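Late entry, nicotinamide-adenine-dinucleotide complex.
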Amino acid sequence: MPVTIGALRERAPGETRVSLVPEIADKLAATNVRVLLERGAGISAQFPDAGFKKVEWADDGDSILASADVLLTVQPLSIEQIQQLKPGAVVVGFMQAYSHVKEVQALRDRKITSFAMELIPRISRAQSMDALSSQAAVAGYKAVLIAADTLDRFLPMLTTAAGTIRPAQVLIVGVGVAGLQAIATARRLGAVVEAYDVRSATREQVKSLGAKFVDTGVSAEGTGGYARELTEDEKRKQQEVLDGRIAVADAVITTASVPGRRAPRIITRAAVERMKAGAVIIDIAAESGGNCELTQPGQVVEHHGVKIVGPVNLAAQLAFHASEMYARNLYNFLKSAITKDGSLAIDWQDEVFAQSCLTHAGEIKHEPTRKLVEAT
Ligand code: NAD
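Prediction complete; structure with ligand written out below:
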C-alpha cells in the first residue's frame, strides 16, 4: 500500500528551514508514494508553493499529522503534535533528545517509530544522509560572513592608492565539518587563517586548505573520529599556546564540541581581555554552552572592546540551501525503505536504520537517551 509522506511548516521560533523542497518532492512522488505538504511550508526558505508540482496540499498541519504515515521534520515535534500523529506513524528529523525528554517519552508512549537524523552513523555509506555535516557546513560558512560583517576592518589584503591594507588574522578553533568550511570561507575572503583542533588528524586538512595549524602539543583523538575530553594538564598546555594566538587574532571562530557533552570552554574572560580592541569572536558552540566563557546564546556581548557573537541555529540563516541539503539527506535516508509499490519496508538489520532509531514499538531504542529518560 503506498504510504503518505508528509511535511509541515516548521513551528519552532526562528526556524526558517523546511524538510521538503521541490526537487525531493518530485523524487518521492516518482517512487509512487503520496506526498502531502502543508500550504506555505517552504515560504520562509524561499520555496513557494507554486514550485511544488507533484504534491497534494493540506491547509493546516493537523490534517498532515493525522494522515501522514511518514512525517519529515526539521525540529522536534511538540508534545501536542505527537499526540495527533497517526498510530504507527514514522517521524524522521532532528530529535534533540537530550533537551526534549518529554517529547521522547511521548513518542515512546504513542508507539511512534522515530529516527533521529543526528544519530545516523558517520560511515562512508551514510555520508549522503549526514545532516549534521550538511548543516554544520552551512554554519561554518555563515559564521565567517558574520565575522566579516561584525569586524570594522577588511579581511583581504588591499593595495590601494590610499596605501596597503594588511589582511585580517582569523583563528578557527575546532576543525570538524563547520571548522573546515569556516577555514575555506575565510581563505576565499582573503584572510590569513590559523586553525586548531585537538585531533592531530586535522593538521593535514588545515594545511591543505592553505591555513596554518596551531600546534599546542596536545592530541586527543577519541572514538569514532570524535575528540575525547581533555585532562586538566592537557587543558592548561592547550590554553597557554592558544591564548597567544587568540591575542593576535582579529576574528576567532569557535566550533569545538564533544558529542553528548557541554561544549569545551576554550576562551576565558582573561583571554578575551588580552584581545585587540575591535576583535570579534563568533561562537558556533553557543547553543551547547559556548566555547567562550562570555558567550550568551542568541546575543552579542561586548567586553573590553571585543564583540562576542553567540549565534543560534545558524543553518536557519541560510534557509534555502540548508533546506535543500537537509531534504536530500532525508531522501537518501528514506529511499532504501520505499518499495516499488510505494510502501515502507524498514530493514532493521541495516545499521543506518538500527542506530538512528530513537523510539519504536513503545521502546526507546537509543541507549543513552533511554538512560536519560529513566533518570528524569
Ligand atoms: P564536532 O561538531 O563534534 O566537533 C567540532 C570539532 O571540535 C571536532 O573536530 C573536534 O575534534 C573539535 N574539538 C573538540 N574539543 C576540542 C577542544 N577542546 N579544542 C579544540 N577542538 C576541539 O565535529 P564534527 O564536525 O561533527 O566532526 C567530528 C568527526 O566526525 C570528525 O572526525 C569528522 O571528520 C568526522 N566525520 C565523519 C563523517 C563520515 O565519515 N561520514 C562525516 C562527517 C564528519
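The mean pLDDT is 95. Will revisit in the morning.
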